[in-house]
């Protein structure tokens, strides 16, 4: 039975046409479209196609030639996480015909597991800050058109020690002329900015105007619907791309041909061009997160503590940062061990989203650590004064990490592009990167 809440379809001008649409369901009160026609018979792999080409690290597709069943398209995008969706938007709004292939029935990767922080203040001055600001603008445009939650609530770092204060003051002096919309606040102004800040030993605050909070679960569910309705992007959920040899793709037993293929496969380095991923020394990062029940106390901005100064590249060139890092490593070794820094924001359902930790390795442990969550919650208390709250959910996410780089763009074959390695900044950078990539690809 079709039961549509909130007139979710009314906002779109075109009817939904999603390949072999079989049923509708809801995900956080929004319509999700699931293609359940993943015929297992079609999904079996032709053993002849299963051998590997050691050079490219992809499957040997010598047998792949155009045949009467080959379906031709212009742009094929693999992965319906934020990177794939941002590229779908960038190409589709310039008039290209785009199809997105997603292995799962709805995206369940890093793009739905994150904070939803669009976080320009974390990006170094120059190209990356501007990329983040462009993404921010696109997020706000998308939100204005669809009504998804996107709160331009800014961010606030209360600081408590002379070492934190030194880094913040250096950052403020250096970055204010570079376009960052920041302010250095007295303790009184910090508390005025957010009454949930812990006043004890407070020395001041770093305010930034530019951060936006979205709800990733809502946004990543809504983007495909928006892209389909506004730009005719077609989505094939539940379809794994198992092999590529340009211009051909093998998708769940079907053969497709595309003028351009964009691979946005997130932390899956194993399926397509695995040797290339291996050669580029990507690793994976596992992060633990928590979410509270809906709260009556209103968190009017995103808050983060001093540990975060050691995390984002934008603070990396502050001369006092090594002393601060040293202090944390000496006084809080467990936080260094688990890569913990703590941030909190509020989503449209008045839930608080809290995180996170960073554990690196190609085979992330499937089990979460209670200790890590306890450490996160304990540090949260040092810079907040929150009424008692109940944790409703805990989970972890995994993203690809490339040390020393902010993205990985590879071209394994003509007209095939891999876009990966955005690390902990995919929500902040993907829309801007996709705009830049349109002119390059
Ligand atoms: C806990 C956590 C918190 C974070 N917080 C933030 C934040 O606040 N702000 C921020 O900017 N960033 C944040 N990030 C980072 C951000 O979430 C990632 O950078 C981003 O989601 C990566 O997007 P993606 O599209 O590359 O990957 P994914 O979201 O993982 O999407 C990849 C998709 O490709 C599909 N796929 C893979 N292989 C195939 C195939 N062969 N065929 C078909 N489909 C395939 C997968 O099923 C998946 O849906 C956070 C990440 C985590 C884990």
How is this structure best described in words?
The chain has 441 residues and is α+β, with helices and mostly antiparallel strands. It folds into two domains: 5-113 and 216-280 and 405-440, FAD/NAD(P)-binding domain; 155-209 and 283-401, 2-Layer Sandwich (D-Amino Acid Oxidase, Chain A, domain 2). Helix content is 29%, strand content 27%. The chain contains twelve helices and 24 strands. It has helices at 40-43, 82-92, 110-113, 127-146, 162-175, 187-193, 216-231, 274-279, 321-331, 333-337, 370-383, 426-440; strands at 23-27, 30-34, 52-53, 58-59, 71-78, 98-102, 117-118, 150-151, 155-159, 182-185, 204-208, 212-214, 234-237, 241-245, 248-251, 254-263, 283-294, 302-304, 343-346, 351-355, 359-360, 391-401, 408-413, 416-420. Strands 9, 10, 11, 17, 18, 19, 20, 21 and 22 form a nine-stranded mixed sheet that branches. Strands 5, 6, 13, 14, 15, 16, 23 and 24 form an eight-stranded mixed sheet that branches. It is elongated.
Short description:
The protein is an alpha+beta fold and 441 residues long. Helices cover 29% and strands 27% of the residues.
Give the radius of gyration.
23 Å
Total count of strands: 24
Number of domains: 2
User: Class of the largest domain in CATH?
Assistant: Alpha Beta
CATH topology description of the largest domain: FAD/NAD(P)-binding domain
Return the average pLDDT rounded to an integer.
Answer: 88
CATH architecture name of the largest domain: 3-Layer(bba) Sandwich
Determine the CATH superfamily of the largest domain.
Answer: FAD/NAD(P)-binding domain
